[in-house]
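Hi team,

Filling in the usual template for the complex we talked about on Friday. All components are listed, including any nucleic acid strands or ligand strings, so the model treats them as one assembly.

SUBMITTER: L.P.
PURPOSE: interface mapping
COMPONENTS: two
RESIDUES: 603
SEQUENCES:
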Amino acid sequence: MKESWKYKIFKVFNVTILIFIVFATLFPFLNIVAQSFSSESYINAGEVTLWPKGFNIETYKVIMSDNMFWINYKNTVIYTVIGTLISLILSTMIAYPLANKRLKGKKFLTLFFVFTMFFNGGLIPNYVLVTSLGFGNSIWAIVIPNAISIFNMLIMRTFFQNIPDELEEAAIMDGSSTFGILFKIVLPLSKPILATMMLFYAVTHWNSWFPAFIFFSEKELFPVSIYLRNMIKGAEATVGTGATSADNLVQISANIKSVTMVLTVLPILLVYPYIQKYFVSGVMLGSVKG
Amino acid sequence: MEAAKKVKELKISKNELWTSIRKDWQLYSLILLPVIYLIIFKYGPMFGNIIAFRRFIPGGSIMGEEWVGLQYFKMFLNDPTFYTVFANTFILAFLLLVITFPAPIIFALLLNELKNQLFKRFVQTASYLPHFFSVVVVAGMVFEFLALNGPINSMIANLGFEKISFMQMPEWFRTVFVSVDLWQSLGWGAILYLAALTGINEELYEAARIDGANRWKQTIHITLPGILPTIVVLLILNIGNFLQIGFEKVLLLYNPLTYETGDVIATYVYRVGLESGSFSYGTAIGLFESVIGLVLVLGANYLSYRITDNSLW
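RESULT (copied from the run log):
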């Protein structure tokens, strides 16, 4: 079929807009990468856009030899691994029974879980609870209170519901217990959803900063996100609970900030191809029954 | 009669529950720990809101020391800052609803017109990226991007205008905040619409073409109605989360110079409660916001149930 000239014009226009969107999406990030490899004088002159000027990898060396950076980076890795594990286990412990036909009171339990998605105690009661449990300055303050995402749990439940009942019935005939079925049949069949959830949770934990910001005062415990946060907000004299004011007065160069940002998002970029694939299918799966 | 029958049914179901628990104790034991976890960490703080009505002393009882009634609520009603942050929250929420909400729909429609699948993939993949950046990194990029020697100001200077210190000017805060939100959510927000678009029956387009409808008319009469249910559901969810405007992002982007337009309820609660240590006062303001939020969710859910037969629970 012949296209009208109007539609042809639209198509050109459309491609132009979309290319612009891609450019606008990637530009701030590419600019940071370029800055991270540039020398400070070019950055200050406002000459660095998409390509490094006055090529420099000294700053990378400096940051990477900063002890505190590595301590904080290592902390993020530890918090992410442990946090993801806890999140994954707890979510499975809810999603599997909720997907099981034999569980009674499912309606009430689902409401009990879903309600917390829409109403929460708020910042200060949460803070009071976590500190009075003695979690301040400990990993538990960031991996426990936000361990479960009900949204993720519901996606998992939908997946478990779609596993054919016959498999389970056959296992019961063979004398398998519930735990046996879970470990020998359900979990091995659920590798795709477990991988998706692992990525979901790992990204959230990797990017998390606020719990550490309010519950941690010891620098040695900070995740790298707080290291970066204090650097970004460093020029200002704001004193947060977790921020230290001593080095806040020093103006930190754009070059150093850029390097830290690039190093912080690097792991996300490395897993991005997988994230992209799994996250999209995860969101689709969740939308089947919202 | 009716009541007696109900009691009987209840008894039976109670017995059934016990038999079921005895038979499948492993199943119930799995969910027991998460239930206890939720009671402590989610429902606990809900009851912890009692300190909005009781004087709380840091280090004292987590339920507060003495009953003071509505004292803290009266306090914020007389607090001029409360009205500022309340208005700021609503203005930002409204801007996000009218700008960040429809943008992914338009983006999905534009993507849908692409015939070249490879190019479409590329645009999509690129557009999802900012969604995965930590809010701290995003804030860092914003500061660099809008710095006096950053790319935007270089462009402004090249065009012969005065440089603007965006992050220090209250009149720019809303524009910056909404732009950042748009930048981060445009691609990701389009996913569900793209899924809905692939579900539209190709024959409908075929029939419309035979009737002589051009692409624009097809979009208005077939494409948009086809994704309307998705739009309605997401709109309702959005209204339900109206007040949740990304408190962490505000906290990182604003500063005392931009409080005038940038300070929202959640950030005010943070400053009053955790920075100044007025726990009870902060809790009272937070509770007020949570209750408005809950009313919005319940209202949105009711609307959703009436309009689309879809309810969230």
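MY TAKE: Chain A has two domains: 5-56, 64-288. Residues 5-56 of chain A form one domain.

Thanks, L.
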